[in-house]
Amino acid sequence: MFHSFFPKPKVFFPSAVIWAIFAVMLWYIFGDNIGSALGFTITPAGAPPKVGVSIFWSSDFIWFYLYFAIAVAIFAGFWAVAAPHPWQRWSVVGSAMILFTVYFQVQVSIAINNWNGPFGDLIQAAVSKSRPVAATEFYSQFVVFLEIAFLAVAVSVVTRFFISHYIFRWRIAMTDFYMSHWPKLRIIEGASQRVQEDTMRFATTVESLGVSLISSVMTLIAFTPLLVRLSENVKELPLVGAIPYPLVIAAIFWSLFGTVLLAVVGVKLPGLEFRNQRVEAAYRKELVYGEDHADRAELQTMKTLFGAVRRNYFKYYFHYVYFNIARYFYINLDTIFSVAVLVPSFVAGTISLGMLNQISGAFGQVTSSLQYLANSWTTIVELLSIHKRLKAFEAAIDDEPLPAIDQRYIAKQEHD
Which residues cross the membrane (predicted)? Predict the structure, then answer.
């Protein structure tokens, strides 16, 4: 699954994490000083945030683009020399490109959140009649928003196109690897499906979960300082009272609650999903044989196989009932939680409408990042099932013992 696309995965992935941590620390500790020494104009810490699309080609951002490119070039160059791999332009450089676009999309979210502040204050001024507000002020704010949105759309379209090719290249790499070992693999139950379908599903799901994880981490890094700054205007929380950094504490508590809740109630789902794929594959396999052989896919055999499919799906549906109760309960409460924690601040009158918009946006981004497992649980269930199937598939390549269900299938084929 990974060896076919990445150079030495057991070393590559830890080295990527270590290099990323080092690059981030270097950026936060020395980035401003190095940028200033190179002639870039660096915005001082604590300065009011800039609003508008122009921030994406400001001196600060151009310096970061250059820094990121240098860090990627060093890392990719090392692996090109240390462990040449036929797919490393896609697996190494391509992954770095996806990482950059995730960062860019997080910055778009920050730009929109910064825009929410003055726009909300403009609405409050117009409604409260605290100052004269002309219609042109609203239209100019709409233009600022549209500029950011159009740039975000353009980047998203290009990113989606690139990721589609990235995923398919990974599928090609896995397919070539498995087909080179086809004589060993052809006897495994559902071998054709695993090569034709599971490879694409695995690459797509890993990419999706990986991008979501990276996006969550970057969003957390970007929005937590903003939430800390906004906490200065929120003095206390309902039931709890005054505590340091109340918005950050509330976000962490709420996210951990949802993650633990859904992980506990959904613990049985991966195994059931894996079993579903097994019984479906056995049922489909017999139908395929029945197309070419009159003595296969007999009525009683198909009733037995479909009975296994039915029983497993009914059990699957039952366990999803209480999982969905917990999930939808949490999702619905999530929509009002960020407002509920601000009730004491509403009563005290310490926040404006624009600040409310910024707090809600930042709080939502931070909690969503911390809720990665909760939001991705059903996808993780699917990935675990696919991984089990492909891992058992690869056991035949390495001459390792197959799972019991595969051994029974091979014994049946040999007997027939």
Answer: 12-30, 62-83, 90-112, 138-163, 209-228, 248-269, 313-330, 336-356
* In contact, 387 and 381? CB cutoff 8 Å: no
Overall number of domains in the chain: 1
What pTM value is reported for the model?
0.67
Residue 375 identity: N
- Which amino acid, residue 88? Q
Domain CATH for 379: 1.20.1560.10
Q: Phi and psi of 275, rounded to 5°?
A: -65, -35
Report if residue 54 sits inside a domain. Answer: no
Distance between CA atoms of 205 and 346, rounded to whole angstroms? 43
Residue 358 or 21, more confident:
21
DSSP symbol at 233: G
Residue type, 349: G
205-210 long-range CB contacts below 8 Å, 24 or more apart?
A: 205/379, 205/382, 205/383, 205/386, 206/383, 207/98, 207/163, 207/166, 207/167, 207/170, 208/379, 209/376, 209/379, 209/380, 209/383
| Percent of the chain that is helix, strand, coil (3-state, to 5) | 80, 0, 20
pLDDT of residue 411: 53
> pLDDT by residue (tens digit) across 205-260?
887 777 777 777 777 777 777 777 777 777 777 777 777 778 888 887 877 787 78
Give CA–CA dist 270/221, Å, rounded: 31
Q: In b/e form, how buried is each residue of 197-208, taking b as 16+ CB within 10 angstroms? A: ebbbbbbbbbbe
Helix axes 59-82, 95-128, angle to 10 degrees: 160
| Range of the structural domain that residue 323 is part of | 181-415
For residue 379, pLDDT over 90 is answered with no
